[in-house]
Each structure stands twice: as C-alpha cells, then as structure tokens.
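I am still getting used to backbone structure tokens and would like to learn alongside you. To get us started, please write out a protein record for me. Start from the sequence, derive the backbone structure tokens from it, and show both lines together. Once you have written the record down, we can walk along the chain together:
***
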Amino acid sequence: MALQINSEKIAKIISTEIDKYKREAVAEEVGKVLEASDGIARISGLSNAMAGEMLEFPDNVYGVVLNLDRNEIGAIILGDYIKIQEGDPVKCTGRILQVPVGEELVGRIIDPLGNPLDKKGAIKSKNFRPVEFLAPSVVKRQPVKEPLQTGIKAIDSMIPIGRGQRELVIGDRSIGKSAILIDTIINQKGKDIYCIYVAIGQKTSTIARIVEKLSETGAMDYTIIVSATARTPASLQYIAPYAGCAIGEYFMYSGKHALVMYDDLSKHAVSYRQLSLLLRRPPGREAYPGDIFYLHSRLLERAAKLSDEMGGGSLTAIPIIETKAGDISAYIPTNVISITDGQIYLESDLFNAGVRPAINPGISVSRVGGNAQINAMKKVAGMIRLDLAQYRELETFAKFGTELDKETKKQLARGERTVEVLKQGQYKPMDVEDQVLILFALTKGFLDDLEVNKISKFEKEFLEFIHVSQTSIVDELRKTKDISLELEEKISNAILKFKSTFN
C-alpha cells in the first residue's frame, strides 16, 4: 500500500507553528575576566552586578561577587579556578547562592554547594535556601528554656546548653574539642534533633574517622556532614558554615529542632582573610579585614528558639575556636566569645593531668544557666561548680605542705571525688537520669568514704544495679524530671543498699 502524504495539511501545521513563534530580543550584560588566580577573579564590564550575586563563567563554573570597585568587580570562584583564563566572558545570573536543604540530605556527606561526596548517588532535594539569610528578629524568638543534653556530665551539670543557644567550645589543638561535638551528636539519638556537622579545613582522614564512628553508633541516621577539607579552595571553606546554617534553618522554620556545629571558625576566619587579601581589601589587626566580626556575628545570630507563632522550632549552634598557647584574648577568640551565649573552655594542663574532658569550670560559662536544665539536675548540680572552685584554690595551698584543719581536708576530699566523677570516656555519653543519680550520690556525701581510685568502678556498677533492680527510680526521674522528697529517700536507700554490697 503506497504511503499518501497530505501536503496541504502539513503546510497548515507548519504555518500555525510559525505564527505561534515569537522571538524576543534579550539584552544580556557580559563582562570580561581581567585576572584569575588563587580562587579569585577580577572582572570588568558588569556594571549592574550586585554584592553576593552569582556569576557564570565558562565550563559551568560559578562565582560570587564580593567586591564592587569603581572600574571592576572582585569575585570568589566556587570550583576549579584553573579553567578560567584572562579574557573569558562572564555573565550575571540575577540570583544569590543557594544550597539544597531537606530530609533528603540526612545521612549524607556533601560539599558546601550541596554536591554529594559519599558515592551514594545524586541528592534529589526539592527545596533550596540561600546561604546568606537574615537572622530572626527579637519578636520572632522566645527565651531558651529547653535543655539540649550533651551526655557529658561536666557540661550538663555546670555549663548547660539549651535548644536555640550558641555555646562556644574553645581551647588549644588536640585536647578534645571535636570529641565533645561527636559525643553530643551520638547523645541526640531518639531525641528528635537533626545534627549538621560542618568540617572546615579538617584533614580528610579526620572526617573519615568521624563518619565511621557516627555510622557505628547509628548517629548518621539523623546527621548531615558538610565537608570543606584542608585541600578545598578557600572560597568553599568560606561558604561552608553558611551552607550548614541554611540546612539547619530549613528544619528550624519547619517547626523542628536542629543542632549545627562549626569545626572550626578559626580556620574559617583564616580562609576569609586569605580571600580578602587576594581581593586587596585593606588589612586590619592580625591582617584580618575590617568586617571579620560581622563574618561570624551574621552566622551565629541565625541560631534561635523561634516563638510558638513561628512554629517553635530551634537551631542550636556550637562553634569551635582553636587558641594558641591558651590565649583566649586573641582577636578571633574575643570576637566569638562576645557573640555567643557562653563558652566551654578546655585547658591543656587539665588534659595532660588526665582530666577528660579537660573543662575548666572557672572560665567556662553558660549565659542561659539553669533555664537549660531539668529540675532534677538543678537540685543535684547546684553546688558542684562552687565545690570545684574551692577545691582548686585549696589544692594550691595544700601543695605547700601546710597543716590543714579537718574542714579543709574534707573540702579537698570532696573536690578530688568531684573531679573523678566528672571524668568521662570518649564516645560514652550518659543519659541525664544516670547523670542525676551519680551526681546525687556525690553531692549528698555518699562517695566521701570511698577511695578515689574506686569511684569510676562504683559509678559503673551502681548504675547497672539501678537499671536492673531499681527501675522505678529511673522511670520516675524520666517522667517527672524532678526529685521529690519521696524519690530522694528512695535514691538514698538504693545507694546505701548498693554500698553494702560494693567491694
């Protein structure tokens, strides 16, 4: 059968399609690369470019405008800047930098632009948020009043953290700052909190070790890792904490709770200093640019506990700052201390003396205080900080070998036992009920007659005893979050019963 072609019909269809087609002239501003090196580019011809706007370079490479000078603009390049040559065309995109956000990112390792680094396939997120976003106003917030348990006795008892708070962890290198963050993430299991760990300038092997530990403990089920390793360009290290914050904000504005950790902001400041100097911005103190305070304040102010009208979500921020030789009066440490709601100070001397975590309660402070503690913890932990402070003072006198009276000896003995109780192994966070029970035994004097080297054994076996034969005590603590007179008597009797069998 021969194929028949209806030429009239085909001509009619073509004519209709031609009538539909409307070609509009689009004016597009194109700039030219004057210079590109070390992760930055100088561009001429983009007179309408805006600060913070994304630029498109050839080979699908993007940049962000940082400098707006009279005759040229300075931009940071997000990606492989080696591909960009002098004379290359550059276009404005009319949009600001965004990252993918949402549940799809949970359990994944991503770079600061939202690209996967874990070989688990593409991230199919439908939601995006700008990396830079205005912090919620005072009207949109409510006071911090819900505890965020870290599982670390020394922190939950003396320097409590609440949901929506910004608590700084500060100290020299290699004395357990990151360990506190990892333990806190592990302790959030089953507590309905999404954790975002932002690694800035860390070694790839360190991040691999952290991922392995979080996977072992099941913590990756509610954790997102934003990785900008030491070999990553400075531009991506600069973007990383803002990207992590944007991911956390998505959960906060959805009425959920998120915890974002920046490890660490010292390296973040260094990467920004590098970019600023390359862009020829005038250097200030320690060669940092003039807006270095604003760099961190606009990031940390985004952490909040939203009002009930806004959904009641929260974003808690725990930044890390690395000091040199314990100098907390340096430029970046003082900046971040003044922005945050308190700091946890780790001391090298304590770490070397075997006190782990090496927290110095004298300098450490939480500006939220008891509002971020359950009533039971308030009752047992009230005197611990004072006991420790007195102990440190008396310890200095005792070293001179002076004759000590009975009361002083008693205070020294209590201090030694307090230090021992607050010691805790890495990757072993404790439930708040267990913390309350052992601190109750300490503050009520039940440990005063025990030898110091038997305290950790006593703690382990006592908590096992409570969970096996005195479960009603733990259940009541978990339910009421308080210690009534009746429960106090129950706990005291349980301790005495256990002590009678403890060898």
About this structure: The first strand starts at residue 30 and ends at 37.
